Amino acid sequence: MNKNFTDLGIASPILRAIEQMGFVTPTEVQKQGIPHILGKKDLIVRSKTGSGKTAVFGIPLLQLIDARKEGPQGLILTPTRELAVQVDRDLKSMAKYLPHQTTAVYGQHSMNVEIQALKKGPSIVTGTPGRVFDHILRRKLITKNLRYLVLDEADRMLDMGFIDQVEKIIKKLPANRITLLFSATIPSEIKKICQKYMNQPTTIEIESSTKTVETVEQVYYRMRRNEKRTQLNHLLKSEKPESCVIFCNTRNTVDRVQRFLTEKGFSSRALHGNIPQNRRMKTIDQFKKGGSSLLVATDVASRGIHVDSLSLVINYDVPQEKDSYVHRIGRTARNGNGGRAVTFVTGDEIMSLYEIEEHIGTMIAEKELPPNKKAQNNRYSHPRN
Q1: How many whole angstroms separate alpha carbon 97 and alpha carbon 59?
Q2: Other residues' Cβ atoms within 10 Å of the Cβ of residue 60
């Protein structure tokens, strides 16, 4: 029997808000997770990005929290600034018909602005571990009434070296709380966190749907490493995509590729962790609005990019994690749309590509590189001064 959101025990003000947000039918993780959290039990969710997990913890927290109580009752830790902003934005939409206030805190954001927001007594605070811990130490984030802790994208926080800060935060929180952990993978370090700080948690595992992969046309091109930039130039001139994200594995590669594209006359933007947060948010916003057709990004910095009509993803580097491949190419197949994903593969990377094929259960077609023709009237190019 197919459940709808009303069947999950969600209060009418929240139902009204999520209906206006476009929520129609709950995803599998929402069907399983929301009632469990409403029952005030610890929960581990192993689910890929894009499964609708923000609503899994956001809806129950908004419903369970008592707006009459003073100080934050819910704390959500996220690995990146962009994700913190996105989660807080979603919470505000879900809380449209509730008295709750929410706020986000993150690095390279005005500390004074955040302190003033915390003084207003938000019910839920979302933030990156470093900034959250900073506010706790300054006694600006009062923890005594915190009853709900969410660790969102825990494996990504581990990858980024934040787990020590996460543990320091947990030790400052009341022991009598509900802890919820969401992660695409559960490596041993994350298992230790669960065993140490969670109370008999139930685990929900949602196998990644291959629908996103199946709706994307996937190809790869074999080439030498020193050919990558030249072939990227040829491919963009040949394909002329309406919008394209070019994924690189490191910040340095992002910068080199973006400079190269500028030299070749393309209008492009770079996105990685070393770029100031306000510039990153502006870049993402411009890209979403069509202000720039090409975005060169690392995996971490790309969180928060949700573009329904993205026509092409280029893996300039084969991703180091198999799940990252699914995450990358899924950006060109959102909301059931088809898309195209191209991967550049060197001799050193071919075994990694084979492992990805095994992981997704799909063969990725090898294609010949497009003919090297000089494209005239390149629609990305701008006059050279």
Answers
A1: 12
A2: 27
Phi, psi torsion values for 167, nearest 5 degrees:
-65, -40
Q: How confident is the model at residue 82 (pLDDT cuts 50, 70, 90)?
A: confident
Task: State the Cα–Cα distance between residues 138 and 134, nearest whole angstrom.
Answer: 6
Domains of the chain: 5-205 (3.40.50.300), 211-366 (3.40.50.300)
The alpha carbon torsion through 128, 48, 335, 365 (nearest 10 deg) reads: 120
pTM above 0.70, yes or no: no
Q: How far apart are CA 262 and CA 255, in angstroms?
A: 11
Four-residue CA torsion sign, 295, 300, 306, 310: positive
Beta bridge partners of 245: 295, 313
pLDDT band at 70 (very low <50, low <70, confident <90, very high): confident
SS (H, E, C) 130-147: HHHHHHHHCCCCCCCCCC
**Whether 197 contacts 170, CB under 8 Å:** yes
Residue tagged 């984030």 (tokens): 141
Mean pLDDT for the stretch of residues 8-13: 95
The type of residue at 191 is K
